[in-house]
Fold this protein.
Amino acid sequence: MKKGHQVTMKEIAKKLGVSVSTISRALKDSPELHVETKRRIVEMAKEMNYQPNLLAQSLRISRTNTLGVIVPEITSHFFASCISGIQDHAIKRGYNVMICQSNESIEQEKANLKTLVASQVDALLISLSRETNHYEHLEEIYSREIPFVLFDRVHEEMPVSKITFNDAGGAYQVTKHLIETGCKKIMYISGPEDLYISKKRKEGYLKALKEFGLPENQELIKITDLTTEGNLQVAQEILDMKNRPDGVFCMIDPVAVDVLTLWKSLGVKIPTDIALAGFTNNPTSAVVEPPLTTVSQPGYEMGKLAVTHLLDQLEGLASDDPISIVLETTLVPRKSTKSVAK
Amino acid sequence: MKKGHQVTMKEIAKKLGVSVSTISRALKDSPELHVETKRRIVEMAKEMNYQPNLLAQSLRISRTNTLGVIVPEITSHFFASCISGIQDHAIKRGYNVMICQSNESIEQEKANLKTLVASQVDALLISLSRETNHYEHLEEIYSREIPFVLFDRVHEEMPVSKITFNDAGGAYQVTKHLIETGCKKIMYISGPEDLYISKKRKEGYLKALKEFGLPENQELIKITDLTTEGNLQVAQEILDMKNRPDGVFCMIDPVAVDVLTLWKSLGVKIPTDIALAGFTNNPTSAVVEPPLTTVSQPGYEMGKLAVTHLLDQLEGLASDDPISIVLETTLVPRKSTKSVAK
DNA sequence: CTGTTAGCGCCTTCAT
DNA sequence: ATGAAGGCGCTAACAG
């Protein structure tokens, strides 16, 4: 199977008996051209269905007007929303987008990066994989002065712009909500401890405990590997505790959904026996029974901000100095936690 | 903000005092080269951190090893799964992927197509927008002999390979399931009638009715525009009927979820008052209360098959003759329908 | 074994 | 107002 032929400037030139440069000028509406020749050329180009070869153009001007995006998982609703925000706003400003997923693997992330760089993308938007704990590949593109921003899953020490959520703030909100609805003994189910969000959300959790005079307790923090099996195991461990918590805050919604599923099947009443809250506001969380109290993170907005800032920098509309944009989250109280006492 | 410099073959050549072609040959491990020079070049390339410029390479060999993908919505879990399948298997075979979403708009679809073609993708995988009811843009790339396949949302008359689900079969399965669990009066909630899947699923629905001797009835088919408002309105209309159905099959899960939400809030018992089933097996459907009976469509698998077939054709491993691949669906019985009587 | 030459499609001085 | 020439980075005959 082979591709058909594409009309080139050369062919238009031959057909019209003018030079290629004239075609080039006409097609970009150069003012120094005779209106009549310009008209003839534009018309002929249309008739022959000329489409510029972006490849050649990019090679010539050494700019592709293409952005590279690397996310851990396309199938995650949150990242899909980010991509959507990135894509919509990139297109508005005349940029294409090449998307890759790392599948939460640092090796795949490196491979993606290499491919995108080889494809000469003008800049990159990256959200790191869970596995990513060293950063040579980022330092490499940094030292090569390829512009990039990090979003959501960032490496704090990298001197580039970062777009994140106020994770600590969100965790604080939700923990405070648990406290205000009567919980006295609140557990935090964390993901792997070296994850940025694990740390940040723990920070907010602890801050709320402290502020309201509840004791911190290492037994009240459990770690899951974020697989369903891991989540279910933690859920079971909690039930096995002789001194169960009366409120549980899960680092991300999927964990909360797994916990909820197991508990319901074992007759645990939510929120009366134990209140449950998540983080992210996945579509799923709104429809489980009871609906899950969570914290909303606008992914589309994050993508939009990230790409807008990146393009502003790229085009000199914003300073090159790295900045940190922090998006606020919103508590979404639902039935998996009790109502605030009036 | 500007990009840093990239090492080129020319620079390596100068540094080593050989010609550019020698570099080119060494880097692609040509056998007709002195081992020692080859070694020196490869080493130097590594030391200078040479990365080939895919743009130049593509322009030269007039092949980009890049595939274009157009889907209606990235944020839909089903399409995200397709993309994931496409991407994973494209990469395995040395191809990159450029993804665009049409946002269910034919104009955006056309724009995406134009961009991808201008970017010289080697081939395309396309799933049509809901709005797409004329096909000049597809005919255009067809006549230009740019290879492409259609998946899921296809245009049947287009003489290219198509990968679809057995939609009629799935609809038949689920309707049959409703019948076998005791429903006598089954309604089909369809999307816009010109949609391929609206038609196909209606086909299967009608076939099952006929086979089991249940009467067809125009009143038992309702149309929604697939917005939440539209879905809720239809859900209300059903309750307002003087002669309510005892089973409802919704064309896609989100419709069923909206219907379920409204009915539950009004005290309608599912499945005892009315049984409810969807189609697609979205993650959401498993966690609503009661969990939704639906039909599973493996999106990842579809993406994988689509890209594999396309690349096989592209690389001459498969005939260029268009084929139609039909994936079977699986009934996923859950609690929103009654159990089969033993 | 290696260098020279030509050209992929386009843009951009520099001439005229 | 237009054309000729050169080059973006790379590959592929063709010549030794």
